[in-house]
Amino acid sequence: MTKRKEAIKTSGAIGKWDWLIFGVEAVFCYFVFQHPDILHTGGSSLAYLDGHFLDFYEYNAQYYGFNNYLPSTYILFAIWNIPIKLLNQVPVLAPLVSKVLLFWYKLLPTVFFLASGCMICKILQELKAGGGKAKLGAFLFLTTPTAAFSQFIFGQYDSLTMFFVIVGIYYWIKDDEIKFSLFFGIALTFKYSALLVFVPLLLLSEKRYLRIIRSLAIAAALFVLEVAVYIHSEAFRNGVFGFGAIGFVTGLSLESTGNQISVVIVLWLLVCGMAFFHKSEDRAEMYKWGIFLSSLVCFLLFGLCFWHPQWLMFMTPFLVLGMMYHRDSDAFLILDIMLMAAFTLVTVRVFYNNVDQTLFYNGVFAPLIQRKNAFHMYDLMPIDGIISFSAFCGILLVITVFKHPKYLLDGVSEKIGGSVGLIRLRAFSGLAIFVVPAMICFGIMLSQPDVIKTDAGMTAPLNTLMEQSDVRYYLTAEESTLTEVKASFGTYGRVNQGELTVGLYNAADDTLLSETTADISSFADGQYDLIDLSDIALHGGEEYYLKFTVDYESPEDLLTIYHTADNTATDTDYAVIDGERMNYSLCVQLYGDVKN
């Protein structure tokens, strides 16, 4: 290899411009995307600042419904909220907060995420990596696609758990049993997944039973204390111990004579057994086994269990540390990109209309599309769910298996084969795998007319035929220009012949403002069909109605319209059938140009 090629493979090839470009990409995602969950957690925490300590869970149950986490999460957010409280910027119980406050909440886990990168650098230095390689490890950590997605796009707070896990790993490497157990114990109070890594690491490094018991007691101490303080609270028990996500580890199970066996629990116990019975020749070998067994635990959690997208941040330290020990790091850089692609396909399907283009609605661009009809990311990539999730699990399994110690270098001080081109590709394309299709959806939504009115969801066809009844839909308008009407019709599973006439009237004096006809032969059952009305100015606060009439070619042709659920009508949105006002509305959608 020439000196030039050798130089490319050194950590020094990543410079300030790489950090700057990724930083710009991360800041863009920070402000453009966000999931609303953090508002619930940050808002709940304000109760502590209002003096509700012992009744925290009961008090919040009145306003937020539930709190799923132990106090550590809310206490940390409460401390973060002290400046907000002192400045009196928001009401303590405000369920909806300004974008400024939302981004303030998002900054807390972002600080922990960046601090985690610093700790990865410190761990690599402790393992005798050179300064350049240690900094490269921090860069690889912060640019790990699934982790960067969790922090900068999804905007959740799993970095809190991860930070304390990484600090615990640092003290495990330093052979400081007390601090190792203590920091994992802190992590445990944020997310229980910390325990699943802590136990194998403990059993790998410690074989004396009394020492094992002592470490477990230290790790459990804070958890037990927090539970003891709040166990009297029914809201605490229901919210924390009733959290459905805890049961995901039992999702994959085998039937056995009337009992179910959790595959994940059985395999985790096997990992613990492997850790205890393995006798490392030296600490260098133990570190490699620690990375491998921790990676196995992550595969059990995310390859064999249902997960939420932000949870995958938890496995980031082991992805990166394993890569720093591997001579074929190029392969793992490519696998990380492939994992992000499969992850995105799974996410936009499983979390449809939740973790996709919907994340725009809590970002700075939200006002531009707030009134637009959504165009979903899944429509751009309609990959079968079984295929995409199987691909994700398979890639994660390959990453895990080939981080077995026999494939790893003796130490991180040895050079790895991570070419700078692939490092940059992973860093800059990782977020782009999600961002590019999201921005395409954003552009499509911008080109759509504003949503003036959407329905509350169809329930059933109206129990009347349009030819035989006077069917009207009433609405009180905003100041807008109506350009497009869609309605969902019931066709009774047939192709009907005839014409539908739709007229728009001013309800005050029954003045006909516009009228159009449509061929009903193209209507499909339950589908929203377009009714082309010419541009009509609607005056804010005035009431209008749409009147539907049908002219059939033969008595066998039938048509009706879908209505919403009972008791969904409002004073500004309701149906009138044969002169009788109903307690539901019709499945009608209106589009146009809303005047702000």
Question: Can you walk me through this structure?
Answer:
- The structure is a single chain.
- By secondary structure, the protein is an alpha+beta fold.
- The chain folds into 2 domains: 435 residues, no CATH class; 145 residues, Jelly Rolls.
- Helices cover 49% and strands 15% of the residues.
- The protein is built from 22 helices and 15 strands.
- The strands form 3 sheets. Strands 3, 4, 6, 9, 10, 12 and 15 form a 7-stranded antiparallel beta sheet that branches. It has a 6-stranded antiparallel beta sheet with strand order 8-7-11-5-13-14, with no helix packed on it. The protein has a two-stranded antiparallel sheet with strand order 1-2.
- A hairpin with a 4-residue loop joins β7 and β8.
- α7 packs antiparallel against α8 and α8 packs antiparallel against α17.
- It starts with a helix and ends with a strand.
- The N terminus is likely disordered.
